[in-house]
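User: Show me sequence and structure for the first protein, then do the same for the second.

Assistant: Starting with the first protein.
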Amino acid sequence: MTRFTGRVALITGAGTGIGAATARRLAEEGAAVVLTGRRPGPLTEVAAAIGDRALAVPADAADPDAMAEVVAAAGERFGRVDVVVANAGGHGLGAVGETSLADWDLALSANLTTAFATVRAAVPGLVDGGGSVVLVSSLAGLFAGPAVAGYTATKHALVGLARSIARDYGRHGVRANTVCPGWVRTAMADEQMDGLAACAGLDREAAYALVTRNTPLGRPATADEVAAVIAFLASADAAIVSGAVVTADAGASAVDLPTIDLV
């Protein structure tokens, strides 16, 4: 497939997991990719595996000045940015009463400000070229899990941010959509599964089976599967799709949870 030939994509949180898988997928389909994240090592490894059409620019996506520099570096190397995939995030554990103001601010910064600062830096170029934005939220952007107040609130906010971008810049040819993955096999999820496994006397595979047992497909996603959904939304195949929320959750959001114990 060559859906992204001649296009330039900026991906945050691109060193591991969904971000790295998305960078590889877009590059395979012809894109030049700009990878950013706070850890230089993983970014460099992913970029090296992709080759000359990849540029690694370490930065904190929550820092507006740093993201302006990343966009400038993309412009200097590849000429512009056509696609933004805002994938950075990951903080916000604890119920409201257990969440300090510092932890709340960290959740806002990691999950919401990262997307805001990235898109804001890229908007001028997106408007010029009729670009596409994909914000990576979570099922926590649609539903509340236990004791993840900061994560849930900020992932919900990403849906509103994408819709605001879609409304404000649609007449300039800019599309914005949100992807909400469920459980995905990533290094971060592996750590969570290992914690659950230790508490429940299970191994990692059994822990994944436990948390996905009530989903219609009965398994977690792979990072590559989520990357394929992101690639579709970012491509011209989704030219009429904007302001949408797409779940990539093995069918979890289709389940009527109160009826699970009845069957």
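Switching to the second protein now.
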Amino acid sequence: MVVVRPVEELIEVEDPAWPSLREMFTRAAVSVDVLPVDPVRAREVLFRLQVSAYSTLGALALNTGGLLVDRGWLRILGGGYGGLPDLAAVNGIGEPGEGRGMLTVAVDVLGGQFAVNGGALPGKLGEICFFGSDTLRWEPIGGGHSAFIAWAVGGGPADFYADVRWPGWAEEVEGLPADTGLSIYPPLWSAEGRADIAATSRRGCPIAELVALHVDTAERLDT
């Protein structure tokens, strides 16, 4: 039986994570834009997640609409902002504490995903896994959610994404809305797309559509 804690209990904790996170963002090695959040919506998201503000996950859900990291290349999810979904909605959590085999916590501009392994993904429980638009498969990358946030704002994406970035990517990505990514053709999972990323065709597309397309493509290629 799942014990559902009231939202006040989730918020009113000793040593909440947000002050130290906020300080980390001011010292970040890359740009970090903290998106505003509707307080009522944030409380509802926290309640549905059933995590407290002591955790990094809970602090982001309660205090941010999400984060745009490294010129917006990474969109780390929080309490929701405009068309950028909140952590509960993107994971289909309708009732408080609903269990999931994975918990998506971030997406990138190409439609890749980062998720916490709840048993449905490779690797250890609680470990962050990545589904890349170039590989179309889930792979554990090590560490939990808090370590992932520190890695993201500490400049980790530069090496991680070096093979799928092109000259001028920053200017191209920076002007995109929070819920919009880049659809690339030929796709990065194809030999043609990987051969010369700079020469590919790129257009704005809702990130939710990109993510769904990559997942669907992976399933079709696996059959």
